[in-house]
Amino acid sequence: MSVSKSTLRLAAVASAAALALAGCASATESVGSTGDSAAPGKGTKAVGFIMVGPKDDFGYNQAVYEGSQVIKKEFPDLDVLTAENVPEDDTAATTMEQMIDKGAKLIFATSYGHLDAAMKVAAAHPDVVVVQQGNTISGAVPKNAGTYFGTVYEPMYLAGIAAGASTKTNKLGYVYAFPIPQTIANIDAFERGAQSVNPKAETITVSTSSWCDPGKQQAAAASLLSQHVDVLTQHQDCTATVIQAAEKAGAMTVGYHADASSLAPKGWLTGAVWNWGPLYTDIVKTVLAGDFVGSKFNANYRVGYKTGTNPFVLAGFGPDVSADAKAKIDAAQKWLGTDAGSPFVGPVEDQSGKVVIKAGTVPTYAQNDALSFFVKGVVGKLAK
Amino acid sequence: MSLVVDVMGGGVAGGTSIMFAALGETVGERSGVINLGTEGSMLVGALTAYAVATDSGNPWMGALAGAVAGGTLAALHAYLVVFRGASQFAVGLSLLFLALGLTSLFGAAYVGRPVVGFSDWHVPLLSDVPALGPIFFQHDPLLYLSYLLVPAVWFALFRTRLGLLVRTAGERADSLTVHGYSVSWTRFGAVTFGGMLAGLGGAHLSIAYANAWFENMVSGRGFIAVALVIFAVWSPWRVMGGAYLFGMAIALGPALQARGYEWNQFALDAIPFVMTLAVLAVLGRRTLSSSPAELKRVFENAPT
């Protein structure tokens, strides 16, 4: 097939799409800019980041912001645009449109719930690359979109080893917000890590139905501590309350998002913390060179210890982690980097004891991302 | 600890911030003014207390500053409503959003900063009493202050001349004028005092209960407090009971989950609000008939 024919065909498809979209101006624009959409984002002058919370929350959003500042440093010619407190609704699409108006042809939509808006913007602007952090595009991935994330459950598995080795009551507590796949994988990996060194360890879960409501976190932490849980961890956007509740009660803590050992000098074990800079840099390089289409980022990309640039790393250890536990964690991290390694190597049983992942099976990152059940040893009911 | 003791103790600890605010709102409403900005007073109280406690290292200074901040926002409400004749609802909500914006802006610097908050202090002897000890006497000093405030506010409202003035401003404003007192200043004072208590409630949340500052951390507790005042038919004692009941409904979910009961989290989350609606439905007209007369005039179409 000749080039001109395929271009014509593309134009015809685009016009049909434009008609179908009933006069959507940006869709019509795409007919004239097939050259751009062949290499969306190429040579962009600006990069946009939208965040769901404040850039200084000592958590998820601060990590994103710090990653964006790495881009600013690495690419001095690029204009780095950031927007905080962008809700997970149409406001997100509007904010991204404004960034596009300012010349951004690459946008990072960094909250789980920003996906719908991101897909909408990607559909309206074929010459702009929109990548989304943490969610998954179902079905065919458009040429100018993708999702990316690290495998946070890998460091949580390692942290689980520290918790399982350190607990005296064999009861670990997990405060979480909502039963999204990312959280489920974290909780399951944490429990599997603990079990790997302490078969009696169980993880008791309490949900707060909020990413940051310190009052509810305190209630959750207090109820767990009263049940003789002696290691607390969490999946929350703001983390200080749970960590301090544990420290005050003389319990131990596994952190999340950021190194909070200063809040819990006695009870801090370790934690899963972020480092987005290297991954963001890779994505920006790929897009600038015009190589985005068909690249690993033009998909639901997951990166972990096997691939090397996992944006999640293990935080430093506290005083309660024994030399023996540290050695086990070190060995487990190396094992996770091999083809045979995974927190979810079969057999994996669900809470009822049914084998869900068969013995010997090593699930892929994509499969881990879609976990929808609690493993045996986790206490609590998943809301469906 | 048994489930009942755990939930009740959790209810007292978690309900106290709401109780401070509701107690304050009771005084304001008794004088005839509704302050929907209570949530805002709690927010500025929470942040100011956190900031002052962090910088001074003294939680009592923090609590005091929180009360002053909450009272200042309420004084603004009172000024606009009482002296400028503005709509109570519009002003209250506007002040809430102002407080949200200001605390997010100025609070950013304090997110994640460690605070020297109130520590739990077990009351000697009393804290060892089975059941009652862990429920009421293993908490922080600011919470114990609230035990004193409830009878104090009740006494002031119903047994002192000042309380009579406040209640008269809310029931028969005209007769207050006849006796040479200023309705406006009485209301101004009552609403400002109410805001101070709401600020203390915010302080309890940020430097005694959760030991953290985060934007919008009050998360609707101020609105619950306003609803609670109606729920409690403007009585300080009932406010106390209602706040604890609400706190218990919040504590029930985590307590059940921590014991491995297989309940859906979203069903548990709904309990406090289902409970509130149920009580309001049962009390219904009774609450309206015992409402301060001047307050009823605020609701133009309210049935009497």
TrEMBL record, chain A:
**Where exactly are the transmembrane stretches of this chain?**
none
**What are the alphabetically sorted keywords of the record?**
Signal
Presence of the UniProt keyword Signal in the record: yes
SUPFAM superfamilies assigned to the protein according to its UniProt record, in alphabetical order: Periplasmic binding protein-like I
Leader sequence segment = 1-27
* ABC transporter substrate-binding protein PnrA-like domain residues: 46-295
Q: Which InterPro entries match?
A: ABC-Purine-Binding (IPR052910), Peripla_BP_I (IPR028082), PnrA-like (IPR003760)
Return the protein name. Answer: BMP family ABC transporter substrate-binding protein
Automatic annotation (TrEMBL), chain B:
What membrane topology is given?
Multi-pass membrane protein
Checking InterPro entries in the record gives: ABC_transp_permease
Identify the main location: membrane
Alphabetically, the GO molecular function entries are:
transmembrane transporter activity
A GO cellular component annotation in the UniProt record? plasma membrane
Protein localization: Cell membrane
Q: Sorted alphabetically, which keywords does the UniProt record give?
A: Cell membrane, Membrane, Transmembrane, Transmembrane helix
Q: What is this protein called?
A: ABC transporter permease
Where are the membrane-spanning stretches?
60-82, 89-111, 142-158, 188-210, 216-234, 241-258, 270-288
